[in-house]
Specification:
The chain contains 13 helices and 5 strands. With 337 residues, the chain is mainly alpha-helical. The protein has a 3-stranded parallel beta sheet with strand order 1-2-3. It has a two-stranded parallel ribbon with strand order 4-5. β1, α1 and β2 form a beta-alpha-beta unit. α7 packs across α8 (158-174), α9 packs antiparallel against α12 (274-300) and α10 packs across α12. The protein is globular and about 70 Å long. The model has no long low-confidence stretch (mean pLDDT 95). Bound molecules: adenosine-5'-triphosphate and L-tryptophanamide. L-tryptophanamide is lined by residues 12-16, 49, 52, 139, 142-143, 151, 153, 157, 160.
């Protein structure tokens, strides 16, 4: 048989196990991970970025639970270990090693411009640690270790992907071509799902307000309640427009989940109030998430399967990562042991 695997593009992405996976993570990133896997035209590599998670203080028992829950949730979304490589970042030590090296090829000024650093340091003013600052170097290491061509992420990660591209290009021109320069893949719809309580802010796993964010594992009742309470405006007309962040967000969610265009949604709800619309969005989301929650319940009860899957993923990933790390170290001038 003709060997086509070598020509396939490499897709790489990761998500932090920093809490229960949200509707934002799903629509912005995970849904596309599965689409790319199913297209069969890419080699997909996905990671639970647990090393990234400790940039914010974690409670150990909770962190262990979050990692397993996130691993099972992502499988429940459709990532399939027979088709994709899916592992836990800390199991592949090459990530931390390349991250250190890339720290030395990234400028302080570049990192100072990262908006996520500014946001997170404002939010965690008591713990502005060096890891939070150099986080984009670890993310660049994740991507570059696997020579990724495409990185499916939500819009908030655009700046980090740009940095990974800059660092890769810099290294390649200082030495010789070593890294593939990756492209971000940001979906047209769903790239920025906003908080249901403050639609000027993105929906985030680590939001303290539980009503701000819909989790993949929320029960139907809870989902409906959160949508009913979603902050909107006083106009009471379902139409996309400036200054209508809450409604724009709900329309965006409804559009990705149902496949309807904004115009179709406006027509569907012409003459109806926000109450009807919120219930419709809630119900559509409930149906989208129902199979995921059911699959998750089965997977989380099967620890042996989860363990076997992430071990297998790490074993393959480690071989790929070491190949890149060897090349990098040789070019820099490290001596082989
Ligand atoms: P945290 O709150 O801990 O910062 P997070 O919810 O922002 O976490 P990440 O693990 O940082 O999530 O992101 C995982 C993926 O989900 C990334 O590709 C990111 O771009 C995407 N993503 C995160 N939040 C949203 C959102 N609100 N809308 C669309 N995509 C999102
Ligand atoms: N920083 C990302 C998660 C992440 C990532 C990556 C995404 C870590 N490593 C590599 C894409 C590629 C975030 O979503 N906050």
């Amino acid at each position: 048989m003709e060997n086509t695997t070598e020509k396939k593009k490499i897709v790489y992405s990761a998500i932090q196990p920093s809490g229960t996976i949200t509707l934002g993570n799903y629509l912005g990133a995970l849904k596309n991970w599965v689409v790319m896997q199913e297209e069969g035209t890419h080699n997909c590599i996905y990671t639970l970025a647990d090393l990234h998670t400790i940039t914010v203080r974690q409670e150990p028992a909770k962190m262990r639970k979050n990692v397993l829950d996130a691993y099972a949730s992502i499988l429940a979304c459709g990532v399939d270990v027979e088709k994709s490589i899916f592992f836990i970042q800390s199991h592949v030590h090459q990530h931390a090693e390349l991250a250190w090296i890339l720290n030395c090829y990234t400028q302080f000024g570049e990192l100072s411009r990262m908006t996520q650093f500014k946001d997170k340091s404002a939010k965690h003013a008591d713990n502005i640690n060096a890891g939070l600052f150099t986080y984009p170097c670890l993310m660049a290491a994740d991507i570059l270790l696997y020579q990724a061509d495409l990185v499916p992420v939500g819009a908030d990660q655009k700046q980090h992907i740009e940095l990974a591209r800059d660092v890769a290009g810099r290294f390649n021109s200082l030495y010789s071509p070593t890294f593939t320069v990756p492209e971000g893949f940001i979906p047209k719809n769903g790239a920025r799902v906003m908080s249901l309580q403050d639609p000027t802010k993105k929906m985030s796993k680590s939001d303290e307000n539980v009503n701000a964010c819909v989790s993949l594992l929320d029960s139907p009742d809870v989902i409906l309640k959160k949508f009913k309470r979603a902050v909107t405006d006083s106009e009471a007309r379902v139409a996309y427009g400036e200054g209508k962040d809450g409604i724009n967000n709900l329309m965006g969610i409804y559009s990705v989940v149902t496949g309807k265009s904004m115009q179709e949604i406006e027509d569907e709800f012409a003459g109806k109030g926000y109450g009807d619309f919120k219930v419709a969005v809630g119900e559509a989301v409930i149906e989208e998430l129902r199979p995921i929650r059911e699959k998750y319940e089965k997977l989380i009860a099967d620890k042996a399967y989860l363990e076997e899957s992430y071990r297998k993923g790490a074993e393959i990933a480690e071989r790929m990562a070491q190949r890149t790390l060897d090349k990098v170290m040789k070019k820099i001038g490290f001596i082989h042991k």
